[in-house]
Amino acid sequence: MIQTIVISTIIILGGIAGYLERSLSSNGAIAAVIVGAAVYFGFGIKGLLLLGLFFITSSLWSKYKSSAKKDIEEKLAKGATRDWGQVAANGGSAALISIIYYFQQDLVWLIGFIVCLASSNSDTWASEIGTLSKRKPLYIRTFKPIEKGTSGAVSLLGTTAAIFGSMLIAFAGAWLFDLQLFHVFIIFLFGFLGNVIDTIFGAYYQQVYICNKCGIATEKKVHCQMAAKRIKGYHLVDNDMVNFLSGLIAALLAMIVIYFVTR
Ligand SMILES: [Zn+2]
Q: Among 46, 113, 137, 167, whose Cα sits 20 to 30 Å from the Cα of 212?
């Protein structure tokens, strides 16, 4: 009982700190507290530590050399202050799996949970570090150079960051939950795969708008204070949707593998 009160206080203080640090908007902070509570409900303090590792490292990389990322922010739908949609996209599946795990404590769900975080971490590190690459990234559809900040762009630096982002969560998860080396490998592999799926979906299905006034290609629906025109991608498929789906698909695939290997 006392532990629950203490932990609940820590989760709420974490949300407030994220808001004050401008890593989270007000509705983003509320969403983060809900995700934190769900994770604690299912996976206890260990789950919360893993979620914290993702949240803190990703926020730090977002802030790292943020002035160099200013131009790119014009192309992205949202800035470094995460709103509820971004929190749900990165933590929603992990929160849902946590609640399921409370009722059915199976290794398959545990692996799914960690893969969700590994995928989010991999993708966030890739975006936040990759955009600092000195060279222009390549577009995955053509393998020709493209402007930084375009969804579907890949760079050596970004891909390296994605590998380390997934690996960190895989090893930390294995250490916290006492997993085998095989599980570390599966989590790492599918966490990284989540980032790859994210890149592919971003390149093929995600919305791109063009500003009617200044002509910039952007993910913002509104630019120069006027509605921008959609030139590419599907209705409802924005960056949040792509993040959410790629993490979920990666987790489901990993869970299928674990299910058949352990039975
Ligand atoms: Zn404009």
A: 137
